[in-house]
Amino acid sequence: MNKKNIIKYFLLIVIAICTVNYAFADSCILVSPADILKVECSNNNVVGFHILSTLTNEKRSVIVNSISDGEANFSLRLKNKKCDYKAVVKNGRLEIKGDKYIKVLPVDLPPELTTEDSK
Predict the structure, then answer these.
(1) What are the residues facing 114 on neighbouring strands?
(2) Residue spans per domain, the chain
């Protein structure tokens, strides 16, 4: 392999990593620029969803909670778009991968605020 091919493969890997949205936490908040009409999930025993409404009835945020270990595919239906995601729960930790159109924000408490009683 010459230098050009190595650089091409390296750039391809960097682009692939940057185009997928990752989050690791116990819970996550998905924030959309448009109203979320519906959440469809392949396995509701793995993750739970709570759509948040504002006072003006805008539904642009969803809280995703881990329920049990496993994998689930889910999609968020917006007015003109469908965003697909994959949720993996291992040892109570939720990992979400998918479309970058919607921001995925992990919700974790810092170690200073967690106690052994709450675990």
Answers:
(1) none
(2) 21-108
